[in-house]
Each structure stands twice: as structure tokens, then as C-alpha cells.
Amino acid sequence: MIARNGDNAMSRQIDLCRRGFAAASALAALSVCLLSPVRTLRGQEPYDLLITNGRLLDGTGNPWYYADVAVRGDRIVAVGNLEHARAGRVIDASGLYVAPGFIDVHTHAGRGLVRAELSHAQPLLAQGITTALLNPDGGGPVDLVRQREVLQQHGIGVNAAQLVPHGSIRREVLGMEDRAPTDGELERMQALVRTGMEAGAFGLSTGPYYAPGSYSTTEELLAMARVAAAHGGVYTSHIRDEADYTVGVVAALDEVIHISREAKMPAVATHLKALGPRVWGYGAALAKRIERARAEGLAVFADQYAYTASATGLTSALIPRWAQAGGHDSLMARLTDRDRRAEVRRAIVENLDRRGGAHRIQFRYHEADPSIEGRTLAAVADERGLHPVDLAIDIINAGSAGIVSFNMDDQDVEHLMRQPWMMTSSDGDLVPMDRGVPHPRVYGAFPRKIRVYVL
């Protein structure tokens, strides 16, 4: 939530949201705080809007019940039996459900919300999303005060909550170096987390799957998390491994649980999945890990998008993290050195196998060659008479490329989805309609879950 300066009532509401989040069901409690009705005295009608005869879901986990909802201005002011109330506009919701706005607990929409032509957030609102948690995966601006100013510059179509991004902080202090911080550098990183939390952040986001977050140790992440915990924050992480790239998906989830335990804070394993045929069927094991942690008393949660395809950059999917150390120029130097290129190529072969092969990689966009957008790596490689790995290296050399990767098993998705601690997210971005072929989760994550998996 972006609160107005000096809005004490809003500040109290945010504080209640923080405590509700820590004590109850993660960001679901935030929706109740932001959207819970405030009852008013009789005789203050007419209302601006009256929603009648709907089946109300109040966001607390209760079963639905029949109730009317009255709105005045931009606030819900009454809920209950309002059959004698009057309003300027009446919506008969007979046979329909009335619910709090959905919360997208993992979205990259912040990059689009700052643009005048996308600040309306219509792709989110069309899904019923009214609150978005920004700066996931350890990415996003370090200066949250400035981010808030830019978000408000053109207005903003949804409520927004900010996270402090560990990866961005590490990049600012250490660049793309693959090493542990010195004591002084660690203190500087902690100070930046503290500044972000004092600026109103809801917690810390990390992405040890991605460079430079992947160069951090668990101890470094824990040091950052403790600062956020001291300010009532939550820890959310794109876990270190979603397959068997490095430590393995189970150990990566254990790292999140360990940080929750040691920092004494709620933690979310974000867009949790078992990525690739090598780990299909691990959904049950991941669920059991979280169940054991919760039985221990830890506030551990997860979120997911309801698709069997993920989306990321081609570099992130295929290039080993050691090859990315030092940044883009260092990577390009390795790819032009014959011996190092061969070493990188062997790693790409392995990583492509982890994702199920070149036919499972579909291009979303490519800065240098839009003609490949919407096509698979296998199809383009076959057309050009190249091995898919060599084509991938050529594409990365030419510029940034985004992909959709069809790498999950539906049984894992469904098993994880049924868990009571699982939340929904889009992991989507707001992008101009003329940029590439976006993942459908940008526009349909929440409706798909309801239509395909619930109904």
C-alpha cells in the first residue's frame, strides 16, 4: 500500500496488516486489512454503490455467506442486511460471489506501473487483482522512496506494497563479483535493508537462483533477513534451485525454512515449483517440508502460478552462474574465448536437458531478432541448420532474450495448489502490447486458477 504522507489512520492500518500477516495467513491477511469494511451508523445513506444479494467471501477463510455491501466514495462503509438502504447505483449480485480484491504476491508489474501508458494496471484489475507486491526475486530499485515517487507520478491503478531487493543491494555494493562481502560491505548492505524497511517496505526479497544473488551464502541472506525481521518484515525468496542445478530444489526450500527459523520471521518460497523432468514428482516432498516447518511453529508459506510453463531470460535459464560473474562484458569475453566457450557450452547442454530439451523453450521476445518470437528454440535451430546450444549462444551474444519454458508437471502443480498455505501469484509483468509474445499469466493467472482448477 502506498500511503499518503501524514495519513495516521492509514499508517495504523498498515501496522495492523503487518501484525496480521505475521500472525495469520501471510499476505491473505493483508487483503483483509486493506479491504475490510468499516461499519457506519444508520441514517448516513444514500450510498454511492450498493451490491446486493451476493455470496460474500470476506477474506478470513470463512465460508461464504449472503450479505450486501455498501460503498461511499472509495471505501466500503457497511456490510450485512441492507435491504432498506438506498444508493446511487445498485448491482444485483444474485448467484455471484463478492470477494476482496486479489493480492498478487509476486509480480514484476512495478516496471510497467511507472509508465504513463501502463500505470492504469488494467491487466491486473481485469483479473480481480487490487494489490500487488513489487520487487520480487531480489530485483527492483534499491531506493524505495524514489520508486514510490515515480509510481505516484502518473497515478497507480492498484494498491502497491514494496519489498527491499537483496540482489539489487548486492549489485550496488559488490557489483557482479562472485565472493562474500567484507565486514564493511555487509554492514553497508544491512544499512540499505534498514533504510528500505524504514521507508515502508513489507519485507525482504531475495533471488539466490539468479546472479548476483546466487553468489550469496545462506549466512549473508540471514544477515539481511534479520534486519528486515527487526522491522516486522517478511522474507520472500525465489529459492536457490528449482531443479538440480546446484543444491537441488529440496535443499533450496530448506534454506528458506532455515532463515524463517533463525530470523524468527514469516517466509514465502515464491512461485514454488519442481522444474524439469529430473524433479517431476517432487511436489509432495516439497509440501511435506513446509508441513513439518509449520508443525514446528514456523510461519512458512508458498505461492505459485497455475501454469506448467515458467518464464525467464534465456541467459538465466541456460548460462551457468560462474560464467556470469563480473557482468555482461565478462560473460561475452568467456563466450569468445575458445576454451571457456567450450566449457560454457557443456554447461548449456546440461541445463537444456534439465528443462526437457530445446522443443520446450519458446521465445517471448528478442531485442535483435523479433522474428523468432513465439517460436521454439528447436524450430529456429532446425530452420537455421544449427545445434540448439550454438543457436542459444548466438542469441545471447546478440542481445537480451526472454523465454517461456514448458518444464513442469501438472500433478505437481495441482498437489501444491491444494495446500492451505499456498497463495496465488502471476509472476507477470506489465509490458507494451507490441513487445514480444508475453506469457499468458500476465493477463490470466487468477482467472485460470478459478476456471481450470477450481471450477
List keywords for this structure.
alpha/beta; 455 residues; single chain; 6-stranded parallel sheet; 5-stranded mixed sheet; disordered N terminus; globular; 18 helices; 17 strands
Describe this structure in words.
It is a single chain. With 455 residues, the protein is of the alpha/beta class. 41% of the residues lie in helices and 18% in strands. It contains 18 helices and 17 strands. The protein has helices spanning 8-23, 27-35, 110-113, 122-125, 144-153, 166-174, 183-198, 218-230, 249-263, 283-295, 314-318, 321-324, 328-336, 338-354, 377-384, 388-398, 410-417, 441-454; strands spanning 47-56, 65-72, 75-80, 87-92, 97-98, 102-104, 129-134, 159-162, 164-165, 203-206, 234-237, 267-269, 300-304, 309-313, 361-366, 401-406, 422-424. A six-stranded parallel β-sheet has the order 9-10-11-12-13-17. Strands 1, 2, 3, 4 and 5 form a five-stranded mixed β-sheet that branches. The protein is globular, with a radius of gyration of 23 Å.
Strand order in space, largest sheet: 9-10-11-12-13-17
- Helix vs. strand class: alpha/beta
Mean pLDDT: 89
Distance between the termini: 31 Å
Rough shape? globular
State the major sheet: 6 strands, parallel
The count of helical stretches stands at 18
Proportion of strand residues = 15-25%
Q: Please report the total strand number as a whole number.
A: 17
Low-confidence stretches: 1-42
Helix content: 40-55%
Query: Radius of gyration in whole Å, from Cα?
Result: 23 Å
